[in-house]
Amino acid sequence: MRNPQQCPSSFQSSREDLVVRINKRAALLLLAGMTVIAAVLVWSFRGNYDRDRAPIIAQAALNSTAAGPSAQASISPAPQESPSETPPVPPIEATPVADQQPSEDDAANSASEPQSSSAVEVSQTVITYYPPSPSAAPQPDPTPPDNPSSEQPSDPASSSSPNPAPDSSDPSSYLTTPVVINGAGATFPYPLFSEWFGEFHYLHSNVQFNYQAVGNGAGIKQLLQNIIEFSATDVPMNDEQLVLAKVPILHVPSVIGGVVPSYNVPGVGELRFTPEILAGIYSGKIVFWNDRVIAAANPTASLPSLPITVIHRSDGSDATFIFTDYLSKVSPEWQLSVGKGTSVNWPVGLGAKGNEGVAALLKQTPGAIGYLGFLYAVQNQLAFGSVRNSTGKFVKADLGSLTAAGVLPGIPTDFRVSITNAPGRDAYPISSFTWFLVPVRSQSPADARDLAAFFRWMLASRSQATARSLGYAPLPRDLAARVNEEISKIH
Asked: What distance in Å separates the CA atoms of residue 285 and residue 282, rounded to the nearest whole number?
């Protein structure tokens, strides 16, 4: 070995080379370390960014599903670095609540049992909420206490036939055009119409109804003058009125009402009335309560020798039309001498204005008899009797027997038909539809579509259940299905 002192220059050069090589390796190691640290930082940042962004994308997908296609088009998610980094979030689907048909027992109790919960329907375009049905009004017992053989009338509206109309979950019923639809007419259905119009506006806030309860005649007059888009009546339009209409008018049944014979006979319970009794009393031929004709129909009643005071409406009314229409059908003599109408020349009796006037006169006059709207008599707890129908059965008015009167063969497609003295075994004989009147061709196609959507909603079981809970008799299901088909003519 050579001594470094003997070769100082060579030794110095070797040592410098070693230092350079060491420095290069250190620099490479330092550079590699910094690269690894940078890669770790970038990977950590990107992972946190994706995790922070995921809830935003998921929320946007939820919003787009609830709001519909228009909302989906307006959502712009943050750009993605690569297709594989964040998979697309699929829309959340929800099945709309079906409009289930109640069984016979459920339908019979629908007026007295509140719905257990509210139903929320989520569809492609609208979230629809059904509020709970109103509490039911008490209904009178249809079976007279002194007639154990009388049978409970069946309720055709609670049959197991198919659903009469699509519910408001039908996408064709979604309304988006702000509109106020004006109508006027009958006073009898006003409480129900107010409830229906309010519920429909709750479901479709862009559609609002303005309905004035001005009476049948005034409403029809405004409809013929094109002042309003629809009317409502308990009396069908006659041929002369239809001729004045510029376009065909469709009668759309909504519910069924009735007229009942109410009386004030001290010491006497529930009475039975035959067509001959009612026609004889109102024509002035039967003048005492113990008349043999009345006694024959009420063998167990202790009838007093008390004069009969006849009370009728002094104002034109739908109740008068329904009552005189019935008398015209069961008594040829009445048809020839008096006839039917909202106002007639009464052979005998005292006149009183409105149901209120008739009821007040009844209460203060022993021996009096008068006719009242069924719903008014029930709400004011006024006594009324059963009436023998066309099959010979004595039937007392209630929701089931009124609905049974609507089961009528041969109803025309415009539904302009009288249902007094209906042929059904359980039918109450002094009944009538309450109709919406609407031109089949409207001046505003948007209003026509909105009205058609409302009518389909009205015919659905939930809406008819609302009518029942307020004391209005629902339509038979088969009839409601027919009406729903004819609604397609409105345009």
From this structure: 8
Separation of alpha carbons 432 and 234, rounded Å:
7
The set of residues, in sequence order, having a beta carbon less than 8 Å from that of 160 and lying 6+ positions away, is: 101, 103, 104
Q: What are phi and psi of 371, to 5 degrees?
A: -110, 140
For residue 209, the surrounding DSSP H or E stretch is strand 207-212
Residues in the chain: 491
Alpha-carbon span 374 to 57, nearest angstrom? 59
pLDDT tens profile 183-210: 999 999 999 999 999 999 999 999 999 9
Which residues are bridge partners to 258 per DSSP? Answer: 431
Q: Show the tokens assigned to 302.
A: 């202790």
Distance between CA atoms of residues 397 and 189, nearest Å: 17
- Rounded Cα distance between 285 and 294, Å, is 12
Q: How do residues 110-121 score in pLDDT, each as one tens digit?
A: 333 333 333 323
Q: From CA 180, how far away is CA 12, in angstroms rounded?
A: 104
72 phi/psi in degrees, rounded to 5? -60, -35
Distance CA(151)–CA(440), nearest Å, equals: 42
How far lies 172's CA from each of 298, 346, 447, 464, in Å?
Answer: 55, 50, 14, 20
Between CA 436 and CA 444 the distance in angstroms is: 18
Instruction: In whole angstroms, give the CA distance from residue 295 to residue 457.
Output: 48
- Residue ranges of E strands in 324-482: 350-352, 368-373, 386-388, 394-395, 431-439
Query: Is 406 in contact with 433 (CB distance < 8 Å)?
Result: yes
pLDDT digit string, tens, across residues 14-49: 555 555 465 666 667 777 777 777 766 655 555 544
Closest Cα to residue 377, out of 406, 347, 398, 407? 398
Q: What are phi and psi of 178, to 5 degrees?
A: -60, 130
What residues form DSSP beta bridges with 311? 350
Q: Provide the H-helix boundaries in 207-255.
A: 216-224, 239-244
Query: What burial class does residue 443 get, using C-beta atoms within 10 Å of its C-beta: 0-12 exposed, 13-18 middle, 19+ buried?
Result: exposed
Structure token pair of residue 107: 């339908």
Is 365 exposed, middle or buried, given 0-12, 13-18 or 19+ CB atoms closer than 10 A? middle
Which residues are within 8 A (CB) of 359 and not within 5 positions of it... i.e. 6 or more apart?
Answer: 262, 370, 372, 376, 380, 382
Amino acid identity of residue 173, one-letter, is S
Dist. CA 449–CA 442, nearest whole Å: 9
Kindly tell me the sign of the dihedral angle through the C-alpha atoms of 464, 469, 471, 477: positive
Burial of 400 (0-12, 13-18, 19+ CB in 10 A): buried
